[in-house]
Amino acid sequence: MQKNNKAICLAVLTFVSASFVSGGFCFFGGASQVVALQVSDRDRDETAALDRDRDETAASDGRAAVIQNTRSGSAIGFGQFVDAVAECDVLVLGEQHGNDQVHKFQLKVIRELFERGIPVAVSLEQFERDVQGAMDDYFDGRIGEVEFLATSRPWPNYGTDYRPIIEFAKANRIPVIAGNVPRRIARHVAMDETLDPADRPFLPRSTSAPEDEYYLKFRQQMEEHMMVDSEVKLSSFYEAQCLKDDAMAEAITDFMSVNSHQRKLVVHLCGQFHSDYGLGTVARIQQRSRLARIVVVTMEPAAAGDEDDSSLSARAHFALRTSSSNAAGRDTDTARDTEATEQDSTSSEQNQSAPTNRVEQDAAENDSVDRRRD
Predict the structure, then answer these.
(1) pLDDT for the residue 300
(2) Spatial CB neighbours of 360, under 8 Å, sequence gap ≥ 6
(3) How far is Cα of residue 326 from the mean position of the Cα atoms in its chain?
(4) Hey, which of 9, 96, 122, 316 would disulfide with 298, CB 3.0 to 4.6 Å?
(5) Which residues, 6 or more positions from 264, have their beta carbon under 8 angstroms from its beta carbon?
(6) Which stretches of the chain drop beneath a pLDDT of 70?
(7) Dihedral through CA 348, CA 352, CA 354, CA 360, nearest 10?
(8) How many Å apart are CA 208 and CA 41, to the nearest integer?
(9) Is the C-alpha dihedral spanning 12, 118, 272, 274 positive or negative?
(10) Distance from the first to the final alpha carbon of the chain
């Protein structure tokens, strides 16, 4: 690889229609469009830089995660990755829930974008639309962390995986979008039950569940991981899945529209089934904002290194190859989320609102400090 400030061109693809082919992304709508972002070489030895990036992203087992450009199949340094995504409108980090390397990488990306002076916002699947007020109140100091946790229904792994991101955003006044549809609503849809009229404001303005490529992949996941005893039940589960995608897409594009003068880069965190292959949430963002430049990152355990490169390039623009073994994996994320919709809504939300004792203790201590400061 040549140095001396020769620009490296990493092809970052802009979706005009979120369609894929086996060899990579496919473009429709007028002329095919590829946005070539110029990535300047650093005044450093690139091999040493890549080694440092790997060290910084390493998990507790001492092994490192590696960022891969799926188009070329080559590993790239963290700085090169951020250079490549810095000009996009939406950066979708499709995660394996519970993978510690993934969550460290998410925070690292957000921090680096912020420190480079790039206006950024964070959108999360892990918080639901009806707790946006609690999120805003917490960020503005109107409530403390104890009350925030009690009212926002954080995921059980919030303390280890998402709290560092939320606290970094809060400390630096980075907007956070609670993007998902409330789980109780998804449950009602999945169970084909009547919605509470009070919940209608939290529905996306439009939603659809076509029997397309996304449906076929969803069906495959359900058949592999769950007992779906009827076509009607499968259809209802799929409608609930699409409802979540439409809710997250709408929350993101509404934020982009309202804040268009600020040109904030939205970093969206979601399970990778919502974003792989440019389907799910990604396709619905593109439907609502046809010119949005979207970059998708997927996560893949290093053990899956024998996956065909063409398959990986069809899934995303970049892949974080992790060494962690505690990941749920893309094959189980959808089944786990769908299975949760069958649980009683109240008990599910109570379970989610019970974070670890450590988080509750930290929150209480933080609130005490805040009160003394005031």
Answers:
(1) 85
(2) 146, 149
(3) 18
(4) 316
(5) 119, 120, 121, 175, 255, 256
(6) 1-63, 226-229, 303-310, 324-374
(7) -170
(8) 44
(9) negative
(10) 56
